[in-house]
Design brief:
The strands form three sheets. Strands 4, 5, 8, 9, 10, 11, 15, 16, 18 and 19 form a ten-stranded mixed β-sheet that branches. Strands 1, 2, 3, 6 and 7 form a five-stranded antiparallel β-sheet that branches. By secondary structure, this protein is mostly beta strands. It has one domain.
Length: 264
């Protein structure tokens, strides 16, 4: 294998095979009173929602209902989790976000339109043809949750954060058991088709069960019917060429939405 100086052509929306931790954002309440100070647990773990690693970053955002962004009032990181503290002052829906956080670097090869992790203990065994270019990669993660004072609105939801987005078509704070949840996966404003969307919840974790998969259609739209109450994480992941000026050839994007599903 080698590292060429020449440019390369990639199938930019193909998902790689390597697993990576997903962050979740878990507020102490999803329906605070106006003026209430809430705490927010943020951690990495592919299982919802048990803290495994703290999410240390300076990209945290609190996006108000009018779309304006500020940093959380307080951020404290511990061994397994980061805790945010913020007073929710405005009526409507506020977004608590990690922002787009750049993380660990790795190496991939592109074979038949699919990225494969290499030179890592986490890499699956594969046969790589000689002189296959090795591509440098860096993770880019975004995780959001929404809290609502009074009547839900859409200003914070429609504010762009990061390249890979989960756009809810139904308000996240209205999720209920048995109800249909509709969302759309977008990359740089374009729909991502035929993409797996993973949904995990706390009941599955306690029962040591896997998550459930949905698939995006030609318009990037996916649907979910929730069968359990409690905290859920909706996650999508893909590899794509890094933006101009980046330190690596590609980025491994993971975007997630944490929401609370109410009983029927």
């Amino acid at each position: 294998m080698y590292r060429p100086a020449a440019s390369w052509v990639a199938a930019c929306l193909m998902m790689g095979t390597a697993a990576a931790d997903t962050a979740y954002v878990k507020p102490s309440t999803y329906s605070p009173d106006q003026g209430e100070t809430i705490t927010v647990e943020v951690a990495f773990n592919d299982y919802c929602c048990e803290p495994r690693y703290a999410v240390r970053t300076d990209t945290y955002e609190v996006i108000a209902p009018d779309g304006t962004s500020s940093a959380p009032e307080r951020v404290e990181s511990f061994a397994k989790m980061t805790v945010l503290e913020h007073t929710i002052t405005a009526p409507g829906t506020t977004r608590i976000s990690t922002g787009e956080r750049l993380g660990r670097k790795g190496e991939y090869v592109l074979l038949d339109g699919i990225y494969h992790l290499v030179n890592s203990p986490d890499a699956d065994p594969i046969t790589v043809p000689e002189r296959t270019p090795i591509l440098s990669s860096q993770t880019a993660t975004v995780t959001d949750a929404y809290v609502t004072v009074g009547t839900p609105d859409w200003g914070a939801i429609r504010t762009s954060v990061g390249r890979l987005a989960i756009e809810p078509a139904l308000h996240p704070n209205s999720a209920r058991v048995g109800g249909l949840f509709i969302g759309r996966v977008m990359m740089d404003g374009a729909p991502v088709t035929d993409k797996s969307v993973l949904v995990t919840n706390e009941v599955q974790r306690l029962n040591q069960a896997g998550g459930t998969l949905s698939k995006t259609d030609e318009d990037g739209i996916f649907t979910i019917v929730f069968t359990e109450p409690g905290t859920h994480v909706i996650m999508v992941r893909l590899q794509a060429p890094a933006p101009a000026g980046a330190e690596t050839d590609i980025r491994s994007y993971t975007t997630a939405l944490t929401l609370q599903v109410a009983p029927d």
